[in-house]
Each structure stands twice: as structure tokens, then as C-alpha cells.
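Fill-in record for 3-keto-5-aminohexanoate cleavage protein.
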Amino acid sequence: MTYESYLAGEPVVVTAALTGGVHGKEANSNLPETPEEIGKAAAAAEAAGAAVVHLHARTPNGERSFATERFQEIDDAVRRYADDVIIQHSTGGTGAPDEDRHLPLRTDPPPEMASLDMGPLNRYDHLTSENTRALVDSLHEEMRERGIKPELEVFNDGHLNEVYGLLERRELADPVYATLIFGGGTLTRPRPRNFLNAIDNLPDGAQFNTLGFGPHQLPFAAMGVVFGGHVRVGLEDNVYYRRGELAESNAQLVERTVRVAEELGREVATPSQARDVLGL
């Protein structure tokens, strides 16, 4: 995917990351936490133009949960309120046993997509998400068995190497779909040149999604649109609409991204079109 993809008018898939597993309502009271809130937020994001919703689960007190039952409650709420949106579960997490990382894959029916972190990253001062190759391989194998499309989360350049390593060890269905993530800490530094290098270094034929944390969400979304990629926005990654102004909802962030794409002349994919683009 390149600038030529943009010129060719290929549709852009917008993903809404609705809640996350780190900050909660203390960061923005509009962030959904309960299954009911997440279901309604998914429907609003879909109506605004999102084709995919990226989901984390939380316990009733707002803490991160990997429990299959909690993901099931959320999926049921999303299907109750939304129309045809694609459900994508997170399998990422810090300090969780490897077996727990598999639990989000075991809902009935399984999600159409799930995240797959491609390597280690530091979180906070004393925690590291290890994401060993053994865990990556076991998660990928269960996704393959359950017909789930992996979304390869690439937090830095080393993780791009891990994408190639996974392709050597495992057979991935075309197209390979990778989310390029930009921000602080272990993430790739949010610079336009780094973005261009990342997309140049993707495997041939790969589709990419663009994720900028915090104040980088909007500019990197625009670059993703212009360079023929797809875009992820939402309150998981950024709780502000503009400097000093909290976002009203995930839908508000999706609506802005859709306006940018339409002004730049790119069609925004429906869930049905997104399934074709991503090979679901």
C-alpha cells in the first residue's frame, strides 16, 4: 500500500478503539467501560463510519479483564446495538499469564479479528509486556484454528523484523494486516520520516493500519489516509479532541477522521467492503 493506493481510490478502513485496558473514566468520563456502554459506543462509531471496533474487556470495577465470559457480554451488547460492524478483540496485556491471553479468542462466535502484539514493550516504570515468540506463535495458531484474522501490532522497528520472522515460521492468510504504532516509550518515535520508513519496510502486499497515540492521532490518521493505509482512532489511544478539550465520544473522533478522508477524496469502507479489503 502506497501513495498509488490513495490515487487509485481504494477505500480506507476506519477502526475505533473504544475503551482500552489502561486509563478509564478518570481520564475521560465519556470512555465506555461496561458491556452496555461499549455496545452503544460501537453502534455510534459504526454510524459515524467505523467498520471495525477494537475491544478490550473490563471487570465491573473498571480493571482490565481477559475473561472469555466478559468478552462474550461485550460482543453480545455490540451485536445487539450495532448493525454489521467487525469485532476485533485485544489479546494484548502486561503481566498476564500466557493462558489468559488466549481467553479473548474463545467467545461464541469468535471475533472476526484479534490483535497480535509482535514483541516486547515496556509499560510504566517496572512492567514489560514480554510477548515472546512462543506466545505469538501459540496465539496465531489458535486464531488460525478459529478462523480469526490476526491484526499484527507493530510498536517499533524491531517488531517489523518480528513480522518477517512470523511469516517464516507460520503461514498467514493474505493480506498480512499490520498496525503501525507511533508514540512515546518503546513505540516508534512519531515522526513523518519514521512513518514512511515503516510502510516502505512492510512485506510485499501487506495492508497497514495507522495508529498515533495522544496528540499524534489526527496527523498520523491523515498520513495513513494519504499513503493508502487504514486508520485507527478512539478513546483507548487519545482522550482529547483538541488540546485542552476532552473528546465527547469515540464517534466524535471517527467523524473527524471520516471528514478528513472524504476531503482527501478517499471512500470510507463499510463493514462489508472492509471484509473484502482485509480478506475476512
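KEY FINDING: The chain has one domain: 3-278.
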